[in-house]
Amino acid sequence: MVEDPLIGRLIDSRYEIVDRVARGGMATVYRAHDRRLDRRVALKLMHPHLADSPDFVSRFRREARAAARLSNPGVVAVYDQGSLDGVAYLVMEYVEGPNLRDLIAQGPLSVKEALGLVSQLLRPLGAAHRAGLVHRDIKPENVLLPSDGSEAKVADFGLARAVTEVAQTTTGNVLGTVAYLAPELITSGTSSSRADVFSAGIVLYELLTGVQPFSADSPIQIAFRNVHEDVPLPSALVPDMPADVDELVATMTRRNPEERPEDADAALALLRDVHDELTVSELAVRRGGGTTSMRDLEAMKTGLEAEAPAVRAASAPSPQEWEDSQDSPHVGMRTVSLPIGSIGPQSGRSARRAQRSALAADARQTDRLATRPSSSRLTRRALLGGGVLALALAGGGGAAAWYFVAGPGRKVTVPAIVGKSQEDAQAEVEALGLVWASPSRAYSDTVSAGAVISCEPAPGQQVPQGQAVAAVVSRGVETMAVPNVVGKTEAEARKAIQGAGLTVGSVTKEYSADVASGKVISTNPAAKKVVNHSTPVDIVVSQGKQPTTVPDVTGMSQDEATTALENAGLKRGTVKKDYSDTVPKDAVISSSPKAGESAYYGDAVSITISRGPENVEVPDVTGMSEEEAVSALEDAGLKARVEYSLGGLFDKVRSTEPAAGTRVKTGSTVTVTVR
């Protein structure tokens, strides 16, 4: 096997390529070492054929900058971009752990786990949609599961958009992973946040069933089915699947984009409503039985509600059993380039055949759902539609025309009630002869409390009089109280913050003289502060005491030594005095710890101050007056004893004992003879 020539290469004098991680339809991913910041990063190098398009390079740079501005804990961070031999590359956060595809390979998940993981996907996707970014390539491979148990991260924001736009403008093709392409991308090349919602709905279906919704011999056949067939309900493979989950998948994967939630935030609100309505036993439903997943639930914090994981049943089927005899189970995972419009609306007899087939499929789904005990809006809508159809067929000619044009069977347009107060919305709905169903409530970052977030049927849709309109009314912005994690380990702090429904922001390390290494010093926002649910909680973790080096204060005065120690983060400790024949009096002889030794900020350093030499030389005071001689001896650290000759009449020193020049101990007595 030929080794990749890029292994070991240094890019931009900064990124050293360590090894190759993966190769996809658009790029090759390498693990690299950022020498400048001493950290591990992922370097994604575009395939060389993309470098031939100047338009791609400019779009790539623009989208990379936009993605880098998208700061969200659920998004793989973009650090840098550049060019290697004319080929564009991105430098991104390196996430240790598997992706969602690896998890799906272990078999289907329970309803609770699937909803939890998709909610982790929709949260950062919603942040992107609010910032005006569309991903365009949502699939399990782009959802990473950090090995530290933190929430999932979405990768490749901006990259798919840049590649897709260039493919459309230069070749008239749409590029993407075929199983997750929204119908409108295939038929017209247009996409919006609703296309990302469609892809997320396919991911939800796959998590619940273990397989993609459509199988075929070739990618073009799967694309054809995406355009002309409704995504099957999960209950077709999982008989115990709750009807509300069926409806959630159906709503997110409507072929008409206008019938889907408008963005990931709206889809998340619907998902939370479904989760809140399900019982514990319904949340535990899993295809083929079993009671737990391949991944610990504690490591899949959903923000919905915390439950202890159960133990996986020993009889749980193997991943192979979920293949369901697909002709080519991997076709749907391929990145393909399809001519835009090559698959489009049908006409003539083929259209009528497709319509009859779709109606028959819808009828079968309606019959099955109508027999299941559920309060699902999908069931109510199916029953109501069936009643109207029966009534219309019972009449004939003009009677039928009257029924649909002027009678109770006529259709009205659902009013634009999104953003209006619940009271005003209800009045508008009822004024048109529609029924105001008991609304559900959800938190919203963009719609004020008491106003309508969305409704089903959607505004602008034609529905019969008497149709129930179920609205989602805003609770306002969801707020959470920041838990007190000071003194906990980083892992304990992460668990507590995520358990409170918040996300962990940046984690910085600081030295602390008071908090042990590895424990949390503080958070921002502070503990007990009530904040918006999307507010990241930054953590400051202690590195323990800050190390320092004891400075050399030898020869300094006591005050100078004190200042030097404080500048090094140390305190002056005890002060001793001792004689020194080499260090001047009042200067520092030594310190403890010694100069150059390691210490920590706040430690005390003791110093020893010189008293001067222990032995001094007797000064020559001959010929001095008594007063002058005594003063000179005392200045030398000696004591004077005066004796008089001739009564000291002349006040002159005749001699000393010991004689001048003799070395004696400091403090010794010298006899002075004065005459």
TrEMBL record:
GO process annotations (BP): negative regulation of fatty acid biosynthetic process
Domain Protein kinase: 15-278
Catalytic activity: L-threonyl-[protein] + ATP = O-phospho-L-threonyl-[protein] + ADP + H(+); L-seryl-[protein] + ATP = O-phospho-L-seryl-[protein] + ADP + H(+)
Species of the source: Actinomyces slackii
EC number(s) stated in the UniProt entry for this protein: 2.7.11.1
Pfam families: PASTA, Pkinase
Keywords: ATP-binding, Kinase, Nucleotide-binding, Serine/threonine-protein kinase, Transferase
Annotated stretches, region: Disordered: 308-375
Record-annotated PASTA domain positions: 407-475, 476-543, 544-611, 612-675
Protein name in the entry: non-specific serine/threonine protein kinase
Low complexity biased stretches: 308-319
GO terms, molecular function: ATP binding; protein serine kinase activity; protein serine/threonine kinase activity
